[in-house]
Amino acid sequence: MPKHGTISTEFPGWYVQFQTDVLLQLPRPDEISEGVAAKLHSNRGLMKRALRKALNLPTIPIVFTDLFRETGELSIQIPALKRPTLEYLQSKNDWIDHIERDTSTEEPVTLTLATVLAAGSADSINRAEYEKRIAEHLNVLLGFQHYEWLLEHQTEHPQFMALLGKIYIDFSGIVVVHRGGGRSVPYCSQYGSRWCGRWDWLSDGFHAHGRLAVGK
Fold it and tell me: Which of 118, 123, 185, 207 has the largest count of CB atoms under 10 Å?
């Protein structure tokens, strides 16, 4: 079997030529930073999504598994939104030092909810296991811009309001690092009669009443 990212003679000749053409159009070493290359290496889904968009190909559907599955509790259309800048986040939370990663989409999406716990499980998992279970799905996790939009438009969605007090929702498409070194993701939970936004320590893991905001 050919390895991903290599040119294979097992493919038709026209496709081998296409692979060559793509490689020839990649940025030169002096046109791309090592940091950008590392980001794409650690999140192949981001690179795949960018290439498919450039080629006007259909979006790859989410592959759900026993440990990354949709709950069917919510479906909300969210428009195209830009990722936040570090300066914007710091204007709201001065304890943020930097953005560790932000793999959230800037395209229109349908927000749904997912869990990383097995069906029927009431257990919690620790941070390491939580991050392990979402590692292959970073490109579908929603981020701060979606969290902010949802909080602003919450009363327009009765389906969302009906979940108030029953669950919390992590927007793990973005991870920020505290000045003291801790790592957090934005999440929303109940505050009185409304949903309220906060930041959740990744060290707290993932709990049975937790959900992940996913974009389809």
Answer: 185
Whether the pLDDT of residue 1 is over 50: the answer is no
Q: Place 63 in a pLDDT band, splitting at 50, 70 and 90.
A: low
β partners of residue 211: 169
